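Provenance

Sequences were taken from public entries as deposited. Structures were produced by running a predictor on each sequence independently, with no templates supplied. The record for Thioredoxin-related transmembrane protein 1 from Myripristis murdjan is shown for reference.
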Amino acid sequence: MACSQGSRTSDTLFSLPWKTQQHTGIFCLVLAICLTWQPASAKPNSLKEITDGNWEEILSGEWMIEFFAPWCPACQQLQPVWNEFAEWGEDMGVNIAKVDVTEQPGLSGRFIITSLPTIYHCKDGVFRKYQGARTKDDFLSFVDEQKWQAIEPVSSWFGPSSFLMNSMSALFKLSMFIRRCHNYMTEQLGIPVWGSYVIFGLATLFSGLALGLILVFIADFVFPSRRFSSSEYYQKKQTMDQARLIQQQEEEHEADAEEEEDEEEEEEDGEQDEVWRRRRRGSPEGRPEPKGHGYPDEALRKRVVGNREDEEDT
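Predicted structure for Thioredoxin-related transmembrane protein 1:
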């Protein structure tokens, strides 16, 4: 019975028209491809790319970031391992990212990339530089066992969000812009290399002069010079000079008056000294003045007056 039914089915299929058989075969082939096809990567978005525009996303959460360049041989060897490690990022709760320093010069200056490849670990805005082995198992153990806690974090002065690193990022962007301009002038416009250098030198000179003039104008506007401010300045200056001169004259007069007073006091002291000397030496006639046998001057005077009255009465 089974054989007879199979033969009937095959006979039925072969008895269909040719176009119907062709459509049926195509449908079966497409169905088989859809059932057997699997995506090449189960997590195509597991490896994130950081740029100058979205780099602030790494300041929150946990990240492992690779800085690489396409022309770097060591980076080319590490890339397959980094892609495998990125497939584990979602399971471990870690964001795996990469940065192409040739396309993102601002991030290269912001993180001070001096060697390639360079790997950073970031946890809630705190950055640490990875120094271990570069295998998938080492990366997994570094994150899973929290070995990053034993590494000293990058100082806040050199953090990517600090003022210093923002300045470095702007400097690297400017240098890349100048390099692109140089390449454009030498390759596209056909200007010789020395001509490009002359153009950049003149541009630097004139830009410096313009910046200096702008700073001078701003300083003169904010802090105007008193010499050219207004006529009131000269009036105030003249008034102050006159007041200073009057004060100086008053001080000189006071000094002269003090000197005169000192001279008068010295003269009075000299006269008093002369009187005392005369009293000690005696009268002008050369006779010694009576000393009254130890009596005071007032008692002696009364005694002399009393003696004269007695003589007159007699």
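Residues 1-16, 34-44, 283-295 have pLDDT under 50 and may be disordered.
DSSP finds ten helices and five strands in the chain.
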